[in-house]
Design brief:
alpha/beta; Lambda Exonuclease, Chain A; six-stranded mixed β-sheet; 6 helices
């Protein structure tokens, strides 16, 4: 029997909470993110979105090294079943939902940009929850295609990936939300509308 959904999280919010736990952002910044307080898009975020558009939609390709674009495209699954595929996965009373960039027959692929790449950067990423979300569709691995605009890197995580770290943060985040419930204005996170 499936539990009733009490919380709705998207992976980037959980990743932000992870950064909060590491002391990289303030409690107020975390609350602002939970409450979806508008913040200006950074240049790096804009460049990342533009790169994804260049690779998948062929929009703005001239802004990027053609070899980097070609390398990323070559590494995409064939055939591509869908881009921006919605998925959701329930863990206890938490629904994790979001969009994966590319859905192939046996893998989900997310395109990432960074100014500095480190190996296994996405091992503890909460987008890995897309693996169990898409398992019923035949997806058996999550692959990240990452560029620092100099090279292209891959990280592949199989369906058997250990989610212990992500699950600990998910449960911790639920406690954080309950401790700050009065400060949270976006009621959607509590799986109900105000």
């Amino acid at each position: 029997m499936t539990s009733k959904v009490a919380y709705r999280f998207y992976p980037s919010l959980l990743n932000t909470y992870s950064r909060f736990l590491q002391g990289k952002i303030s409690e107020q910044a975390m609350l602002d993110r939970i409450n979806r307080v508008p913040i200006p898009q950074t240049e790096a975020q804009f460049k990342g979105v533009s790169f994804e558009d260049a690779v998948l939609k062929k929009i703005g390709e001239e802004q990027f090294d053609p070899q980097i674009i070609a390398t990323v495209r070559q590494k995409l699954p064939s055939p591509i079943i869908k881009t921006q595929a919605y998925c959701q996965y329930q863990v206890g009373d938490v629904m994790i939902y979001g969009f994966v960039d590319v859905l192939g027959r046996k893998e989900a692929v997310d395109i990432k940009t960074t100014s500095h790449y480190e190996t296994q950067r996405f091992l503890q990423d909460h987008q890995n929850f897309y693996l169990p979300a898409l398992y019923g569709c035949g997806v058996r691995q999550m692959r990240y295609l990452i560029t620092d605009f100099v090279g292209v890197y891959e990280e592949i995580y199989p369906a058997s990936t250990d989610f212990e770290g992500q699950l600990e943060e998910l449960y911790s985040f639920k406690m954080f939300l309950e401790e700050h419930r009065e400060e949270i204005t976006d009621a959607k996170i509590f799986a109900k509308k105000k």
